[in-house]
Specification:
16% strand; alpha+beta; 5 helices; two-stranded parallel sheet; three-stranded antiparallel sheet
């Protein structure tokens, strides 16, 4: 499977491609690098995102997951940069409960490109399973211009 690592403000990230679509983005560096046109384009788009807080174009994504997880991840992709939705709001779109949305988010194989960091709890930030956890979620939201004033450091 072709994979390409890149530097980010959160350390190294590795993109994985299969059958012409991005299937994973993992925290850390992959051992063997094998770039493709899609992976190179995705790396440029991610670097632009880290500079501007906006994804300049949509990429073909094909995350592996259950039908429910895929429904949640599709709902996440509709959240505009700089905005958030609650777990409950996503559950109203995709079905299930706030807890099941949180579980689907924690299994998101393509973080950032499928923006699970934009989903927050009704009374706090909720969780984040990528990189440095909530510190990374806060940084991604701040990068996109989301005001974090309503979430004091003690409220998760």
């Amino acid at each position: 499977m072709p994979q390409l690592s890149l530097q980010s403000p959160f350390g190294e990230l590795t993109l994985f491609e299969e059958d012409g679509a991005i299937v994973a983005l993992e925290w850390g560096r992959a051992g063997e690098q094998s770039s493709t046109a899609l992976l190179s384009r995705a790396a440029v788009i991610l670097q632009d995102y880290f500079d501007t807080g906006l994804l300049s174009e949509a990429l073909p994504l094909n995350p592996a997951g259950t039908p429910y997880q895929r429904a949640v991840w599709k709902a996440l992709q509709a959240i505009p940069a700089g905005q958030t939705r609650t777990y409950r709001e996503i559950a109203a779109q995709a079905g299930g409960s706030a807890r099941s949305v949180g579980n689907a988010n924690s299994r998101n194989p393509i973080p950032i490109l499928i923006p699970c960091h934009r989903v927050v709890a009704a009374q706090g930030l909720g969780g984040y399973s990528g990189a440095e956890g909530l510190a990374t979620k806060r940084a991604l939201l701040a990068l996109e211009g989301v005001s974090l004033d309503r979430w004091s450091p003690g409220i998760i």
